[in-house]
Design a protein that fits this description.
The chain has 97 residues and is α+β, with helices and mostly antiparallel strands. 27% of the residues lie in helices and 28% in strands. A two-stranded antiparallel sheet has the order 1-2. A two-stranded antiparallel ribbon has the order 3-6. It has a two-stranded antiparallel ribbon with strand order 4-5. A hairpin with a 2-residue loop joins strand 4 and strand 5. Helix 1 packs across helix 2. The two termini are 20 Å apart.
Length: 97
């Protein structure tokens, strides 16, 4: 698990405003959501979550990028990258899966 760092709500709101997932949200909603957020730093190669994990976490990438791997029967069948400003994990958080 990454280390937790304090963060300013205004910086979180700015990042949320730049994310397509939150593009339609009003400022008040973004401020409320930003108050629930935690900042974490992850090192190269560190795992955020595995495909199929149950989670309520949404990851907003603020620096760098992360690799996304889709696996079937233990083999990687597709890869993608999520750059700064992207959200990952939102489907698991929204569906509870």
């Amino acid at each position: 698990m990454g280390a937790v760092f304090p963060d300013l709500a205004s910086e979180r709101v700015r990042w949320l405003q730049q994310s397509p997932l939150f593009a339609e949200a009003d400022r008040e909603s973004l401020e409320l959501f930003a108050g629930l957020m935690q900042s974490r730093a992850y090192g190269p190669g560190e795992l955020l979550f595995r495909q199929g994990d149950s989670s309520s976490d949404v990851y907003l990438i603020t620096r760098g990028d992360t690799e996304i791997r889709i696996e079937q029967e233990g083999r990687v069948v597709a890869t993608d990258r999520a750059a700064a400003g992207s959200c990952v994990g939102e489907m698991a958080a929204l569906t509870g899966m």
